[in-house]
Amino acid sequence: MYGTAWKEDRTEELTRLALDSGFSGIDTANQRKHYVEAAVGDAVAAALAGGRPRSGLFLQTKFTFEGGQDQRLPYDPAAPVAVQVEQSFASSLAHLHTDYLDSYVLHGPTSRVGLKPADREAWRAMEALARAGKTRLLGVSNVSLEQLRALVEFAEVKPAFVQNRCFARNGWDRAVREFAGAHDCVYQGFSLLTANRQELAAPAVTRLVRETGRSLAEIVFRFALQIGILPLTGTTRVEHMLLDLGCEDFELEPKNQALLESIAR
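Predicted structure:
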């Protein structure tokens, strides 16, 4: 998936480039602090006008609580949480020039520990959107294993995705990945490169790049796919977009997969 965070005035341009390069999955959020969702929508509208079918795109955006926003809120902060979800969702549909979403994600619980009443209220409102056919799937991001376990127990519409920043030092978020996999929940990993610069600079990884003739990004994203991670990339260079997509046309040998799995140890 192509991630659109932190692109600001280049958001539309880069999203267009990603779509033209072959990406079909786009990840954004109705959080003006870090995303320009409306600019993502302008790129999507151009792709649709150019003949790309809506069914050929996977559009994912997020509901973000007030604590993760700046002053440019997509909802009335005085409204109940369920209403905030509805208002943010309606705004996202307008931004993205669509009448449904493929995935709607809770952009992190209100606290780092457990699920609070506001988290549960937001999820119930998201479930109502899913039942109404306005979003095909639901997800959650920036969660611990404890929080994901609590959400799966609470949810009537189970999360289809969990999206976390993925660190090699904790086994590429192994505990969360394994729990997600056991509950038919796809793990989306972001910051696979930027969060692991030290580990990926190891001599063994440098040798692997040299021996395979593949870029570091291709190797890391191929590794991610092989261990069950759907990788997000937010590269701003078209040549890197094409390289990132190239991770789908080769496989790492078991010994090299094991090397990357254990690199932080």
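Summary: The chain has a mean pLDDT of 96.
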